[in-house]
Design a protein that fits this description.
- The chain is α+β, with helices and mostly antiparallel strands and 331 residues long.
- The protein has three domains: 19-116, Immunoglobulin-like (Sandwich); 124-191, no CATH class; 202-329, Glutaredoxin (3-Layer(aba) Sandwich).
- Helices cover 35% and strands 23% of the residues.
- The protein has helices spanning 3-18, 109-122, 127-140, 156-169, 177-191, 231-247, 263-272, 289-293, 318-329; strands at residues 24-30, 37-42, 47-52, 58-60, 71-76, 79-83, 90-96, 104-106, 202-204, 210-212, 220-226, 252-258, 278-280, 301-305, 311-314.
- The strands form four sheets. The protein has a five-stranded mixed beta sheet with strand order 13-12-11-14-15, with helices on one face. Strands 4-1-7-8 form a four-stranded mixed beta sheet, covered by helices on one side. It has a four-stranded antiparallel beta sheet with strand order 3-2-5-6.
- The longest helix is centred in the last third of the chain and has 17 residues, at 231-247.
């Protein structure tokens, strides 16, 4: 193949991407006696567009989908179907109000995959079978963003290769924030394995002073991701207070990263629960820089570090944390 032909093909592919027609969406709602409108929302429940449902059940959205994204078609809170358009697709959807788990979808590859594999997973009860289904999905469709919604069934410590395979396949969708976050989380996984040096966190304490996680080296350190609004976190605090009093003078430190968004609530919880260790936060809720670095998807979440700042264990709390500290300090 000569260079001129190669250039021509490459140029054609580039132009087809640049000038790809936007996706469109129309459809019909059946068995509907309640709803008069249907909303297009993003995954943060922001309304993009609202349309009336015709007397015959038909609807048409004006939105032109110029790039891939994740959407919900919402009738009311909790009553919705998903829509994941790819540019160039002219999607038609028939939605049965009495059977939302089985919409009939034409010309929306990623949306169809979502429902195809949702059904497959729902038909089996054994977790290993569910795991096998997700693995087969990633093997078959390593470039579909839809796979992200099923990766929760593949524990990263056991199936990290599948996370990495999907992450590599999704590079072309990296402009999408959800995909970008997934790729970042997958890259972070490599840094969060037992024995690895703990990634740095630099956040401000209540006085506005920046405290680096690395400043705690020389101690066994518990990174505690928590928030004032997290009931399980608040329930766990008395246990941590007891352990801190017992082991702090022997070389135990707690570096608490709050996922609060209200400063007063954060400070009030620290005082109310008598938490005398290191506290930091950027008050960014789930967008906390520290939480993102450590792939925190739920709290309470803990990471225990050794004296050199390497990851010793993850997820310890309650009796498990008490036993581990007894082992480390010999009592």
């Amino acid at each position: 193949m000569n260079k001129k032909l190669i250039f021509t093909i490459a140029l054609s592919l580039s132009l087809s991407i640049i000038f790809a027609k936007p996706a469109s969406l129309k459809g019909k709602v059946i068995n509907n006696t309640k709803y008069t409108k249907i909303e297009l929302q993003d995954l943060q429940y922001n309304v993009i567009e609202s349309q009336n449902i015709g007397k015959d059940g038909s609807f048409v959205f004006n939105e032109k989908f110029n790039e891939f994204n994740f959407y919900l078609l919402v009738f009311e809170k909790g009553i919705f179907v998903v829509f994941f358009p790819e540019p160039g697709e002219n999607t038609e959807m028939t939605i049965d109000i009495n059977n939302l788990a089985n919409p009939v979808i034409l010309n929306s590859v990623h949306s169809q995959l979502y429902y195809e594999y949702s059904k497959k997973i729902e038909t089996v009860k054994d977790i290993s079978q569910k795991t096998d289904i997700v693995k087969s999905m990633v093997d078959k469709y390593p470039s579909s963003p839809t796979c992200i919604f099923f990766l929760g069934l593949l524990e990263p410590n056991k199936f990290g290769d599948y996370h990495e395979k999907l992450s590599s396949g999704l590079k072309k969708y990296e402009s999408n924030e959800i995909v970008k976050d997934f790729i970042t989380q997958t890259e972070n996984m490599k840094k969060l394995k037992i024995g690895e040096q703990a990634p740095e966190i630099e956040l401000e304490n209540p006085d506005g002073t920046t405290i680096k996680l690395s400043s705690t080296k020389g101690n066994y350190v518990l990174i505690d991701f928590w928030a004032s609004w997290c009931r399980p976190c608040r329930t766990e605090n008395p246990n941590n207070v007891k352990l801190y009093k017992k082991y702090h003078d022997k070389g135990f430190e707690i570096y608490a990263v709050s996922l609060d968004k209200d400063r007063d609530s954060w400070l009030k919880a620290i005082e109310s629960d008598s938490l005398t260790w290191i506290h930091v936060s950027d008050l960014q809720f789930w967008q906390s820089k520290g939480a993102k670095i450590y792939n925190v998807s739920g709290i309470p979440h803990t990471v225990l570090l050794d004296k050199e700042g390497k990851i010793l264990d993850v997820g310890l709390r309650g009796q498990a944390l008490k036993a581990k500290l007894e082992e480390l300090f010999g009592e």
